[in-house]
Structures are given as structure tokens and as C-alpha cells.
Amino acid sequence: MCGEKYFVESISQVWPITVLYGLYVALFGGSVYVLLYRRPNTFYLGSSLALFLLTTAYTGILLAGLLAAPITSSDSYISPDGVTVLPCNTPTPEGLNEALTGSCIVAAQYAIVMCISLVADGVLIYRCVVLWHQRRWIGIPPGVILLTTTALNAYYTYCQARLYIIQRDAPSGEGPPPIWTETATIMSKLVAAINTLELANNVITTALITLRIWLMARGLEKVIGKGASIRYRIAMSMM
């Protein structure tokens, strides 16, 4: 069947997210308890709440988009560009309405992903600045990368919203206009750039955090001994 592959892909994208979200809820509850009663920290608590709300919104929108588009899920396929979803058969009015709703939902999803990335990477950069308090300029390069990634994410969200407008205003019975293909090509390039920058930023910040903890632990070991420094090593890793 034409739409079988797209249907399987749609379902396979949802169920792992829902399972991971259930685990995340448990972790969130534990982190809130720790940040409220054991190791109070307003910044981390606010970041955890923001990430939880954004993740909940993303999961809800993802499930709503799948449930609200039964025709699209079962009678569509993804074009070679990897962005455009096309109907297997002659589109019906109901299918067109579902496609429009789906495009709008996808734009909202990308906006939420942009915010999640901003908050999560911002927390890593904050940890770098806290740990490298005598060399806080170390946080500047990751900060620049984060701002660049956020700008690209915002532009990608704009392109997705643009596809929705093109699809909404396109005459019925005609194929996608040239501007659709141009926008889809730009989005493919944006995805590659965004993924590269996010990977680089995560590697840099994680390496800086790990290096600083290792240097601090090594300094403690020289002063108080290796065995006595274990609990301090654990405490520093939680900073």
C-alpha cells in the first residue's frame, strides 16, 4: 500500500516518545523534590519546570496531530526531499483540511523544539560559567553557537509556516508551486546546519564541564587524598 510506510513511520515516531515522556515525568518529579528540599536552586528549578512544560506541550501536540489526521496518516507518502507529505490518491476536501491542520501543527512543533533547545543548551552553558567562574569568557563561544542555532531554528519555523500559507492559498488541482520546492530545499539545508551546530555545542559544553570537574577533583586529591575526595567529586558533578 502507498500509505503504509508513512503510517508505520508516524506510529513509530510516537510510541517511543510517549514511553520516554513517561520516564521523564518520573525523573522530573524526583528533580523537583531535590531542587526544592535537598539542594534548593532557583535557576535549575525554573529550567526544569520550563523544560517539562515545553516537553508536555510538544508531546500533546504530537499526539493531537496524529489523532486529528487519520486520512493523512493512512493515505500519504513522503516526497524524496524528505519534507513534503503528498497524498497517494486524489485529495479529498477532508484530506486537504487535515493536511492544512497538519502543516500548522508541525510549525508549532518546531517552535516548541526551538524553545526546548534554547533552555536545555542554556543550562549547559550556565554550568560551564559556574564551574569556570575565574574564566567566564569560556561561555562566550557556546553562547554564540546557541544564539546562531536559535536563529536558524527560528528561520526554519518561519519556513514551515510559509509552507502552510503556500499550501492554504494554492489553487486546488494544481501541483506545488516552484516556491514550495525552493522553501523545502532551504529547510533541508537548515536541518543539516542546525544538527551540526547543536552537536558541536553539546560536545563543547560537556567537554568543558567534564574537564573542570576532573581538574577540581584532581586538585582535591592532592590535598586531602583520593579516598576522601570521592564525596566532593560527586558534589561537584551535580553543580
Walk me through what this model shows.
With about 240 residues, the protein is mostly helical. The protein has one domain (about 5-235). Helix content is about 80%, strand content about 5%. It contains seven helices and two strands. It has a two-stranded antiparallel ribbon. Strand 1 and strand 2 form a beta hairpin. The longest helix has about 45 residues, at about 180-225. The chain is elongated, with a radius of gyration of 23 Å.
Describe the structure using short key phrases.
239 residues; mainly alpha; two-stranded antiparallel sheet; 3% strand
Give a topology summary:
Layout: H1 4-38, H2 42-67, H3 70-74, E1 76-78, E2 85-87, H4 93-131, H5 140-169, H6 178-224, H7 230-237
Antiparallel strand pairs: 1-2
Structural class: mainly alpha
Q: Helical amount among residues, as a percent range?
A: over 70%
Q: Rounded to an integer, what's the Rg over CA atoms?
A: 23 Å
State the shape. Answer: elongated
Contiguous helical run count: 7
- Residue-averaged pLDDT, rounded? 81
When the domains are counted, the total is 1
Number of strands: 2
Strand order of the largest sheet: 1-2
